Amino acid sequence: MTHTIDRLRLGSGLVLLAFVTCHLLNHAAGIVSLEAQDWAREAHHAIWGEWPGLTVLLAATVVHVAIALRAIYVRRSLRLAPLEWGQLLLGLAIPFLLAEHVLGTTVSEASFGIEPSYAYVQAALWLVSPWPGIKQVTVLLVAWVHGTIGIYYWLRLKPWFHRAAPYLLAAAVLVPALSLAGIISTAIEVMALARQPGWIGALLRSVHFDPEAAEFVAEGELTAQIAFVVLVAGTVAARAVRQALVARSQRPMLRYPGGRKVPIQPGASVLEISRSEGIAHASVCGGRGRCSTCRVRVSAGAEHLPPPDTQETRVLARIGAPPDVRLACQIRPTRSLEVVPLLPASATAEAGFRRPAYLAGQERELAVMFTDLRGFTQLSDGRLPFDVVYLLNRYFAAMGGAVEQAGGRVDKFIGDGVMALFGLTDPPEEACRQALAAARTMGAALDMLNRDMANDLPAPLRMGIGIHAGPVIVGEMGHGLAKQLTAIGDTVNIASRLEGLCKTLGVAMVVSDHVAAVSGLPFDGFERRETEIRGRDAALAVRLVGDPRELPQV
Questions:
Q1: N or C, which terminus of the chain has less Cβ within 10 Å?
Q2: In the prediction, which pLDDT does 323 show?
């Protein structure tokens, strides 16, 4: 049912936006002349003024307004994002502002036989009082902005949206701008014509003006506005009554991490309950079951939930969600439930696309590398901060480029050191070869950096490299803006210890013998040594490398 209503909302909204777009382009023809506007009006009338188009338009209007009022009634919380509030209020303002224009054109044409031309419409809007004209311009802009917000909510979940966004924004600005230019141009033209003796009388005769129509429009506008206000107010009042009745009943509880629990409102989704209780919860698509950013892990009570419908199943499959993950906007619990939101409230649309499984946390076989500049603290003493930052950025660019060129990923820059991971998407053998290839490229890059900056450095830069491979826990860790992909575990600690041994052993690089063996590359020419590693009971076999540029190649 929910998805049928969503499709009806989208379909009716697209029909109404198409009508508004045609109407705006019709106005834009006024940049040329009044005659061009009338010609465009005939084309517009051929689409929307005859019974097939008019029937579709009226049906779309009724459906869209009815769905909007239903949304107000069934919504368990009126805590909305600012853009959602803007869209709702603009939508409610449209019928209120549009009543006079509809009665003065379409209804007057059908009831009184008036055949309004653009000159007649512009005269009615601007000659007696500027208020009708201002109101007409306002309603066009309100309808356009309301529609473009809806298009934004619909399309921003598409993978191609960010590429198309600049062009869509340009169209969203250009269409109303051209329309306003056309309205202003023809308004000026009509005001000039109105100064000619007899022009207004001839205009009224040409459109078969009936004085009773003006009285009908004034009375009809007030009646329509009152009726719409009563309709909206009645919907809000009915919602308040329903909320009061629900509040009296005994309700099951919805539990969140940290022990917080809130009563479940009958018929409300988990997302709606979160919002009504002031609990921050991600929802890029506004609870329409499209983006998946509201997803939660159901840790208790899942057996009381109905299985996901087709739409929810499709979205969950898109992101590769496990069975215990559901969309908070689609589950409407009737019994106590415990959930864990999986994304921060600030999540963006990108979080709704499929992501590598290891980001959620996996144990994987990786090769881990640590590098560190030797004596950089002494080197930076007495230098200007700008020079230190410049030098470090040159070094990080060279080392990071070497890691990425080999197929690895820079985990983080630590002071004047680098941590890198290899094998996130490759087998352990390839991961070890990638790490060794990166070290070899780093050696060459450091040599080139020393040559380029020979006049600025008191002595050549030196670095130590440690590489080890084995099982690690990898995933996105941290909080907020500091959340990033990283790895933890004994393998990471050993790789860091091996980098520290470089200085003790007087070599540029220490590689665990395990990495050398798994890589399948010949290491016979490099010294093999058993060494004690702090925090490890047994000695570890390592290979000592004096110059990373001498490492064997595949």
A1: N
A2: 86
Q: pTM to 2 decimals?
A: 0.55
Q: Which residues contact 312 (CB under 8 A, 6 or more apart)?
A: 289, 326, 327, 330
Residues in the chain: 554
Q: Say if residue 294 is exposed, middle or buried (CB neighbours under 10 Å; 0-12, 13-18, 19+).
A: buried
Separation in Å, CA 121 to CA 18, 20, 134, 203, 316: 22, 17, 13, 11, 52
Classified by CATH at the fold level, domain 357-550 comes out as: Alpha-Beta Plaits (3.30.70)
Q: What is the pLDDT of residue 423?
A: 92
Query: Which CATH code fits 253-352?
Result: 3.10.20.30
79 by DSSP, 3-state: which? coil
CATH topology of domain 2-243: 3 helical TM bundles of succinate and fumarate reductases (1.20.1300)
- Per-residue confidence (pLDDT) for residue 200, from 0 to 100: 86
Rounded to the nearest 10°, the torsion over CA 399, 402, 405, 409 is -50
Query: Which amino acid appears at position 68 of this protein?
Result: A
Q: Which two tokens stand for residue 487?
A: 């790895």
Could you state, in order of their start, the residue ranges of all structural domains in the chain?
2-243, 253-352, 357-550
- Cα–Cα dist 30/178, whole Å: 9
Lateral strand order in the sheet of 325-327: 261-263, 253-255, 337-341, 295-300, 325-327
Three state DSSP letters for 267-313: CCCHHHHHHHCCCCCCCCCCCCCCCCCCEEEEEECHHHCCCCCHHHH
- Predicted pLDDT at 496: 92
In the chain, count of helices (H) and strands (E)? 17, 13
The residue with tokens 């009061």 is 244
Taking the C-alpha atoms of residue 421 and residue 4, their distance in angstroms, rounded to an integer, is 46
Task: Give yes or no for a contact between 465 and 502, defined as CB atoms under 8 angstroms apart.
Answer: yes
Sign of CA dihedral 235, 238, 244, 249: negative
In this prediction, residue 358 carries a pLDDT of: 60
The pair of three-digit structure tokens given for residue 397, joined into one six-digit string: 């660019």
What residues have CB less than 8 Å from 72, skipping those under 6 apart? 88, 232, 235, 236, 239
376: how many CB neighbours lie within 10 A of its CB? 19
Contact between 360 and 475 under an 8 Å Cβ cutoff? The reply is: yes
Q: How far apart are CA 502 and CA 510, in angstroms?
A: 6
Mean pLDDT by 10 residues, the chain (554 residues): 81 91 90 87 83 88 90 78 86 83 67 75 81 84 91 86 92 94 90 88 80 74 86 89 70 84 86 88 84 88 88 86 88 90 78 62 88 79 78 90 92 89 92 94 92 82 93 80 82 93 92 93 90 82 92 83
Residue at 140: amino acid letter: L
Integer CA distances (angstroms), 211 to 101, 102, 130, 523, in order = 16, 17, 20, 101
**H helices present in 75-210, as ranges:** 82-102, 108-112, 118-126, 130-155, 161-194, 199-206
Cα–Cα distance between 222 and 540 in angstroms, integer?
88
Token digits for 343?
A: 């994304």
Q: By CB neighbour count within 10 A (0-12 exposed, 13-18 middle, 19+ buried), where does 436 fall?
A: buried
